[in-house]
Specification:
Shape: globular
Helix content: 55-70%
Order of helices and strands: HHH
Number of helices: 3
Structural class: mainly alpha
Largest sheet: none
Strand content: under 5%
Family: Belongs to the transposase 8 family.
Protein name: Transposase
Mean pLDDT: 91
InterPro entries: Homeodomain-like_sf (IPR009057), Transposase_8 (IPR002514), Transposase_8_domain (IPR052546)
Radius of gyration: 10 Å
GO molecular function, one term: transposase activity
Amino acid sequence: MRKSKYSEQQIVDALRRAESGVAVKDVCRELGVSAATFYQWRSKWRLRT
């Protein structure tokens, strides 16, 4: 399986920023990922928490 470009901590930090009120498109732009990737991360990490 391919290794992610982003660490788990970076993903969690991005999700927390979006929950705190930062627009998803802004978080995605800063990380250089698509909105679809962000929402995939969100669905994956919500299952674990």
